[in-house]
Design goal:
Strand content: 5-15%
Low-confidence stretches: 197-208, 211-219
Largest sheet: 3 strands, antiparallel
Strand order of the largest sheet: 1-2-3
Length: about 220
């Protein structure tokens, strides 16, 4: 604060009266600048630790340090008799939703459009609308956790390989704001490291006829 005031007082166009009249604006700008510097430093450190392996991007069970993540088998929802089921645009039942029942109130208009798109996409094996601030989350360099809107399982039709992907929806009115920009950078960074999986050894798996197949797990 002292450095900022000294710099302003040294300015030719700044008088004591102007400085006093602008005090609230000055404090806000100082806070905004410090926050920007803190986020930049945190992101730089986060990237360094990802590169060194001190931070890893994994699916983890919340109560187990081992890599044994799994979705819950059941969900408990609070619904009313008047709550409507979420279905296709033509009224038919959904085909690729992971859980049997999805209610309209769980999705806003944009999320419904995304769900319809995924439900009709051949590459999507299944999709799941994550419970807000309860299900799967991502942790980046900022304090707050990021809770994506969807988890989807994609399947390659050529070789049957599958991968998980998370999706965050943002309306046009949120484009370019701080939260959207942060999440976009975090998703890009984690996608980059997710795609750079390392070979972690191999195992041999026998089939019903006793033949051996080699599998190379990735970490």
């Amino acid at each position: 604060i002292e450095e900022t005031l000294d710099a302003l007082e040294a300015s030719e166009n700044m008088t004591a009266d102007k400085l006093y009249a602008s005090r609230i604006f000055i404090v806000q700008e100082i806070k905004r600048d410090i926050q920007k510097q803190a986020h930049e430093a945190s992101e730089s450190m986060f990237r360094e630790k990802l590169a060194s392996g001190d931070i890893q991007f994994k699916l983890m069970a919340s109560e187990d340090e081992a890599l044994n993540w799994k979705l819950a088998e059941t969900l408990t929802l609070s619904v009313k008799d008047t709550d409507r089921l979420f279905k296709k645009k033509n009224g038919e039942e959904l085909e690729c939703n992971l859980f049997e029942t999805v209610y309209q109130k769980e999705l806003n208009n944009l999320e419904q459009d995304v769900a319809w798109y995924m439900d009709g996409n051949d590459a999507v094996k299944w999709w799941h609308r994550l419970v807000v601030k309860q299900d799967y989350h991502l942790q980046g360099w900022q304090r707050n956790r990021v809770y994506p809107d969807f988890l989807a399982c994609l399947e390659c039709k050529d070789d049957g390989a599958v991968q998980f992907t998370v999706l965050e929806t943002k309306g046009d009115h949120l484009k370019g704001n701080d939260d959207t920009a942060y999440k976009e950078r975090l998703f890009e960074l984690l996608t980059e490291h997710y795609n750079e999986a390392l070979e972690a050894g191999s195992v041999e798996l026998p089939d019903a006829e006793g033949k051996q197949y080699e599998s190379k797990p990735m970490a």
